[in-house]
Design brief:
Blueprint: H1 3-13, H2 24-34, E1 41-45, H3 51-59, E2 64-69, H4 72-82, E3 89-93, E4 103-108, H5 117-124, E5 128-141, H6 148-153, E6 161-162, H7 163-172, E7 175-184, H8 186-203, H9 209-226, E8 232-241
Parallel strand pairs: 1-2, 1-4, 2-3, 4-5, 5-6
Antiparallel strand pairs: 5-8, 7-8
């Protein structure tokens, strides 16, 4: 990706509520499943614009929360979003491959695949406190073999697998799966509806060729999701080191 293409991509993705499918209920589900409370240390790895950071702070009102993101303008958006929460919640520019810690919880929504499930979890083992957990979402096939619409949506992620395949990667990292839930339907609509509105707005501003290409690419993604909204999914998994 050229610098111009990168700028165009982030122009499309600027000022969106979140950078991937999900909803507040996902965070609350994980917190409830793990029985989390008190003065915990929490990392929101690859936090994007901070949608889940805010929910983590609300769900864990005594926790110290670090939101980590390598894209500077997402760090700025997160800081603006959490400004009213005070010093216990902070946003830092950094690489989730070097998370620091240790943490009671590492939350990672739709980004662990950049490191690879197995290698990413292995790299995070030393960043967890004893008894700590990782909660992450990962693209998943609900049915195998997938239909043509699902194949088209995931064509740029050929390593996608079903839940059993993700579980095998978790096991290979030396972790045990504790619980999971599927992210399908409404959480994706919540992601794509604001993006559609931004695409439509940017098209009214006489975009140049590079930005037009980025708008077209993101529109294709939305259209492909709309062709199979009940089949395109993430799995949200709670895992702990063995």
């Amino acid at each position: 990706m050229t610098p111009e293409e990168r700028d165009a991509f982030f122009t499309v993705h600027r000022d969106l509520p979140r950078e991937g499918p999900g909803e507040a209920a996902d965070v609350h589900w994980a917190v409830t499943q793990l029985g989390l409370e008190g003065s915990l240390d929490v990392l929101d790895a690859a936090c994007g614009p901070g949608a889940d950071t805010l929910v983590l702070a609300e769900a864990l009102p005594e926790a110290s929360i670090t939101a980590m993101e390598k894209t500077p303008h997402f760090v700025s958006e997160t800081r603006a979003r959490i400004a009213q929460l005070g010093p216990r919640v902070r946003a830092v520019e950094g690489d989730m491959a070097q998370p620091g810690g240790p943490y009671d919880l590492i939350w990672c929504a739709g980004a662990l695949y950049f490191l690879g499930v197995t290698s990413g979890l292995q790299g995070w083992r030393d960043a967890l406190k004893p008894g700590g957990a990782v909660v992450f979402s990962e693209p998943v096939l609900l049915n195998t073999p997938p239909n043509d619409a699902v194949c088209a949506f995931w064509e740029e992620y050929p390593q996608i697998t079903d839940l059993a395949g993700i579980t095998a990667q978790v096991t290979a990292a030396g972790y045990t799966g504790q619980a999971h839930r599927m992210i399908v339907g409404a959480p994706w609509e919540a992601y794509y509806t604001p993006m559609q509105a931004r695409i439509d707005m940017l098209r009214t501003q006489s975009p140049d060729a590079v930005l037009t290409a980025a708008l077209d690419e993101n529109q294709r993604e939305i259209d492909r999701w709309r062709a199979a909204p009940d089949q395109v999914a993430y799995a949200l998994l709670i895992v702990t080191p063995e």
